[in-house]
Amino acid sequence: QVQLVESGGGLVQPGGSLRLSCAASGIIFSAFAMAWYRQAPGKQREFVAHITSGGNTKYADSVKGRFTISRDNVKNTVYLQMNSLKSDDTAVYYCNLDGSFWGQGTQVTVSS
Predict the structure, then answer these.
(1) Secondary structure of the chain in the HEC alphabet?
(2) For each successive 10 residues of the chain (112 residues), what is the average pLDDT?
(3) Distance between CA 82 and CA 48 in Å, rounded?
(4) What spatial distance separates the first Cα and last Cα of the chain, rounded to whole Å?
(5) What backbone phi and psi angles, to 5 degrees, belong to 89?
């Protein structure tokens, strides 16, 4: 069965960086698009970044220029490099496979 496991979240100061990872299993990873979403307290889950099987990317306007999504088809892992973090980036970050499967989420807290 498909399994997505996120890691890399934590507490970081404003202006800092984190790299999230999402390891996939149970699928032919290289064939699928992957995405990151996030959900802040009291808000709806929102799109953050997307990468196609061919490596094309797109981003939410709120993270463009600060976040980078990438993938390693050998390690079956998708990454989200987050730089210049702001308090508004505080949320649970979820990995998504092809619009269908979700990971359990990893908490990112940006605070001084």
Answers:
(1) CCEEEEECCEEECCCCCEEEEEEEECCCHHHCCEEEEEECCCCCCEEEEEECCCCCEEECCCCCCCEEEEEECCCCEEEEEECCCCHHHCEEEEEEECCCEECCCEEEEECC
(2) 95 98 92 96 96 96 98 96 98 94 97 96
(3) 11
(4) 40
(5) -80, -5
Q: Are 33 and 90 in contact (CB under 8 A)?
A: no
Tally Cβ neighbours within 10 Å of residue 91: 22
Give the CA-trace dihedral at 85, 18, 49, 45, to 10 degrees.
-70
Question: Of the candidates 84, 80, 92, which has an alpha carbon nearest to the alpha carbon of residue 35?
Answer: 80
